[in-house]
């Protein structure tokens, strides 16, 4: 039986990633992003989301991947943690899925080297890499 854990499943560079739904406040279409000088290479700028200033990053660049051009399916996943809000630009958002903790596997090949990935969830013929949002938000 599946526990009540839920993931927002999204795509980056033809790979599926998952983010725990309790960290997601909303998913929005790409909007105008105001650039901020002297920020990290993966920081795209800030957006005004109903009066709240939200920093936005390219999740692809943050994870060390090649950045795709923004397209019709591109989205900003607005996350919220104790540290505040952060917008993550992703190639597309697919679904919300349920999973149980015992379905999550640690990768033998990663050997804990990828601090951005908490584990792997196998689903049918696909693998979903579970994102460690806390590490993504660290400088």
UniProtKB/TrEMBL annotation:
GO cellular component terms, alphabetically, are:
cytosol
UniProt xrefs under PROSITE patterns? CHEW
> Which residue ranges does the record assign to the CheW-like domain?
4-139
Q: Name one Pfam family in it.
A: CheW
Known SUPFAM superfamilies for this protein? CheW-like
One BP annotation, GO: signal transduction
InterPro entries per UniProt: CheW, CheW-like_dom_sf, CheW-lke_dom
User: Any idea what this protein is called?
Assistant: Chemotaxis signal transduction protein
Q: Which organism is it from?
A: Desulfoscipio gibsoniae DSM 7213
